[in-house]
Write a structure and sequence with these properties.
Blueprint: E1 3-6, E2 13-16, E3 23-26, H1 29-35, E4 40-46, E5 50-54, E6 59-63, E7 69-73, E8 79-83, H2 85-90, E9 92-96, E10 110-112
Parallel strand pairs: 3-10
Antiparallel strand pairs: 1-2, 2-5, 3-4, 4-9, 6-7, 7-8, 8-9
Bound molecules: zinc ion (2 copies).
Amino acid sequence: MSFQGSCLCGKITFAVTEFEPLIGHCHCTMCRKFHGAAFSTFADVKLKNFKWLSGEALLQSYQASNNTVRQFCQHCGSSLTFCSSYNNNDNTIEIALAAFDDDINISPDAHIYTDTKVTWLKLNDGLPQYRQYRDSTQGEK
Ligand SMILES: [Zn+2]
Ligand SMILES: [Zn+2]
């Protein structure tokens, strides 16, 4: 079984065979800016379960001040991956879940970094909400 995804222009395509269990909706300001959206949803994937199918040469990287690296398509700007030192040590990469073209039968498990959630979005899906990362204090439900 393989799940395929692509950027907006379609030049970059990728495939994942298996997802790791934790998938959070991230409300941090960097995810908001990078996606141009209220929050991001990245899925953790082992590197051995991920591959680029086409357009890898079009990938552009942005390294933020906290050394996390985000990759996007230099042609259409779609944000595709996220990588921190945690991911590097864990041999994983985080893939933007909304870029998949195939239906994926998995569910995000939490909202994280809700301290910086936009005020115009109401959360009512019943998932746990963490003010920062998962092991931090749970915010108001
Ligand atoms: Zn593209
Ligand atoms: Zn984030």
